[in-house]
Amino acid sequence: MKVELPAAFEDAPISDLVVLIADMLDRLMAHNDRIALSPQALTRFHSRSAPAISVIDYLRRITRFINVERSCLLVSLLYIDAICARHPLFTLSSLTCHRFLITAIAVASKCLCDSFCTNALYAKVGGISVTELNILEREFLHMIDWRLMCTREILSEYYTNLVRTNASGKYAIADDHSPMAVQPLRQPVPTQHVRPTIEQNMAFAAHQRGEG
């Protein structure tokens, strides 16, 4: 049975967004975990071993104990693409995903939201020390060159692609015939956007399932 989601990502249940994002990240990690890790590719986001907690449970933990805006969850996907575009050796894998997610959400909340939590809370919920989160945050900002802003239109594209390429195929976006103006979260990023690596992975997954 299809689960019909609202056309606007702002109205989508957080629980469904978590499922969609976790599904996409799991597929991306499964692909990247097959790539041999070279010493040059190591970053501060790499852990010595994959965390025991799954990505979906990690995201559920974060959204349970922290009031995370939907835009912050979606923009973390854009951040993955932006950093991978700037640093081709970096991959989101089972060794990097968890640290990347908590850092991306913390940074996005501070950039896009009027209110946000302290690093002490982000670190506690994320299962790392405050010192480590501070280091990861600085590394993150350096890797992305402080390019954190995003338009609502871009986030809507990510949301639509998440729904359309979900592995279970049970999600669909409700028809919405009411015009909705595209408004920026703050200001548009004054640079051109490269089409996401994540979108390419989604298209590849759809092709494997015989949908494209």
UniProtKB/TrEMBL annotation:
SUPFAM superfamilies: Cyclin-like. InterPro entries: Cyclin-like_sf, Cyclin_PHO80-like. It holds the Pfam family Cyclin. One of its GO terms (molecular function) is cyclin-dependent protein serine/threonine kinase regulator activity. CDD domains: CYCLIN_ScPCL7-like. GO terms for cellular component: cyclin-dependent protein kinase holoenzyme complex; nucleus. Transmembrane segments: none annotated. PANTHER family: PHO85 CYCLIN PHO80, PTHR15615. This is Cyclin-domain-containing protein.
